[in-house]
Design brief:
Helix content is 45%, strand content 12%. The protein is α+β, with helices and mostly antiparallel strands. It folds into 2 domains: 3-55, no CATH class; 72-203, 3-Layer(aba) Sandwich (Glutaredoxin). It has a 4-stranded mixed beta sheet, with helices on both faces. Helix 5 packs parallel to helix 8. The longest helix has 26 residues, at 30-55. It is elongated.
Length: 204
């Protein structure tokens, strides 16, 4: 057996069946053998919970919530300010649609604090939209055909906003890129921070 095989075996999680057997000493009484058997059982029961914890996959970190609900007036005011900021700085706008009940959305919120992703997001103007149970801000849901969250839409205000002034209506803006992020679900979508960073860079 080579050293690499030994090393890999040492890192594996093993169950109680791999514990060394306890041989009863010769000439022992039935009572002493029974006592030893009970000790083996008790030791096994003590180690099983530790084995299960060590072998269980670590649950992904979730954010406490996606974000607060907004009134239509609050959202349109935020979108108007995003348009103004984008035109003055040249930064694109990231429209983030999600909900508190959505575990994918809360996972994405936790991932946003990771180094490379946090750095890339600093180059964006972020606008979060809590869609509730797809019953809030229906005008956005219907226009962008939102049927899954977390949904990210990369936008830039149209050239008319520089000539005629900004508006708070992203339906009139230019879509750079559009995707669904489901890092927990098994759907075919972006799942890791590096994938999200690459997507954002392409959208810029």
């Amino acid at each position: 057996m080579n050293n690499s095989a030994d090393a890999s075996s040492a890192n594996r999680c093993t169950g109680p069946e791999s514990f060394p057997p306890v041989s009863p000493s010769s000439g022992g009484t039935v009572a002493s053998q029974s006592s030893r058997s009970w000790r083996v059982i008790l030791l096994t029961l003590c180690f099983v919970p530790l084995w299960l914890v060590a072998c269980s996959p670590e649950a992904p970190a979730l954010g406490p919530a996606f974000g607060p609900a907004q009134t239509e007036e609050e959202l349109k005011e935020r979108l108007l300010q995003a348009c103004i900021d984008s035109n003055s700085t040249g930064q694109p706008i990231l429209l983030e649609l999600g909900a508190d009940w959505c575990t994918d959305c809360r996972r994405v919120e936790a991932m946003k604090s990771e180094g490379a992703l946090a750095e890339e997001l600093s180059r964006w103007i972020q606008v979060k939209v809590n869609v509730g149970r797809y019953d809030r801000h229906k005008w956005l849901i219907d226009h962008f055909r939102v049927d899954a969250v977390a949904r990210w839409i990369a936008l830039k205000p149209g050239p008319q906003t520089r000539q005629n002034g900004c508006n708070g209506d992203p339906r009139q803006w230019t879509i750079q890129k559009d995707t669904v992020l489901e890092p927990i679900s098994d759907a075919n979508s972006l799942k890791t921070a590096p994938q999200i960073v690459a997507w954002l860079k392409e959208a810029r």
